[in-house]
Amino acid sequence: MYEKLDQLKGLFVDLDRALIAYSGGIDSTLVAKVAFDVLGNRAVAVTAESPSLLPEDLEDAKIQAAEIGIVHKVVQTHELDNPNYASNPVNRCYFCKSELHDTLKPLAQAWGYPYVIDGVNADDLHDYRPGIQAAKERGARSPLAEIGITKAEVRAIAKHLGLPYWDKPAQPCLSSRFPYGEEITIAKLQRVGRAEVYLRKLGWQNIRVRSEGDTARIEVLPEQVKEFVIQTDLPKLTEAFQSYGFLYVTLDLEGYRSGKLNQVLQFKSV
Question: Strands, E, within the chain: which ranges?
Fold first, then answer.
C-alpha cells in the first residue's frame, strides 16, 4: 500500500499540474488529496453539477475539498439534453462521461493543465464501465488504475492519510437507479434523490432506491434487511415515498450489491 502511495505521489510530481474530475466520492477525493499534497495550488478539483447529482452530495464535495485545501470549482454539465443519454441505453455512462470530459478538457487546456485526471480505480476496470472508454478517448488519465490501486486500497490509503471520509459509501450518479431503457427525466431523478435523502436521514447510509416505473425498490445491505424491517416505520416511509410520486414501495430481499443494475446484461448474454 505504501509503495503504491509513493508511486501515486511520484506520478503527480511528473505531471507538475493536475485538474481532477472530482465527484466527492472517496476515489476522486483521494486523488485530490494526494495531488494537493504534492502540487499545492498547481492542482485544482472540478465538480460537475447536474440533475443526476444530489445537492447534498455537491455540498459534501465542497466541504471535503475545503478540508483538503485544494482549489475547488463547480461547472455545469447538460447530459440530459442528449437523447442518447436520456433514453438510458446500456452504454448511458459513455454519454455521461463524454459530456463531462468534453466540458473539462477545454477548461484544462485553457488553464494550462496537460491532463484531466479522474478517480477510476483498478477494480473499475473489471466491471462494465463504458464511461471509461469515453474518458480515454478524450485523453484523460486514471492514476489509481494505472498504478493498480484497488477500491480496498483506496480506502486504506485514505484512512492512513487521515481523511475522515475514508469509509464513505459509494454514491454513483442518480441515473444509475433506473433500469436500462427507461427514460430518465429531471422529475424522476428528483424523486429518487428525495427518497434516498429520506433514508439517509433515518441513519441508513449504504442504500439505493431503484426506480422502475411507479415502483421504488429499496436496497439496504443484506445483513441489515431484517433490521430495516423491524426498525423502520414502514407506513410512514411508504407515505413519504408516495408523496414524492411513487405509487408502490418495495424492499429488495437480496439487499444492496454494487453493479446489480448490470446483472440484466449477464442474463441477456446467456
Answer: 18-21, 43-49, 71-76, 116-117, 208-212, 215-219, 248-251
Question: Where does 114-168 show beta strands of DSSP type E?
Answer: 116-117
Question: Across-strand partners of 215?
Answer: 212, 248
C-alpha cell belonging to residue 124: 473499475
209: region left, alpha or beta (phi > 0 left; psi from -120 to 50 alpha): beta
Cα–Cα distance measured from residue 180 to residue 202, given in angstroms and rounded to the nearest whole number: 29
Contact between residue 245 and residue 191 where contact means Cβ atoms under 8 Å apart: yes
pLDDT in tens, the chain (270 residues): 789 999 999 999 999 899 999 999 999 999 999 999 999 999 999 999 999 999 999 999 999 999 999 999 999 999 999 999 999 999 999 999 999 999 999 999 999 999 999 999 999 998 888 999 999 999 999 999 999 999 999 999 999 999 998 998 888 899 999 999 999 999 999 999 999 999 999 999 899 999 999 999 999 999 999 999 999 999 999 999 999 999 999 999 999 987 666 665 554 544
Q: What DSSP assignment string belongs to 23-49?
A: -SSHHHHHHHHHHHHHHGGGEEEEEEE
Record the pTM.
Answer: 0.90
> Exposed (0-12), middle (13-18) or buried (19+): which is 240, by Cβ within 10 Å?
middle
Cα distance between residue 251 and residue 208, in whole Å: 10
Cα–Cα distance measured from residue 132 to residue 60, given in angstroms and rounded to the nearest whole number: 24
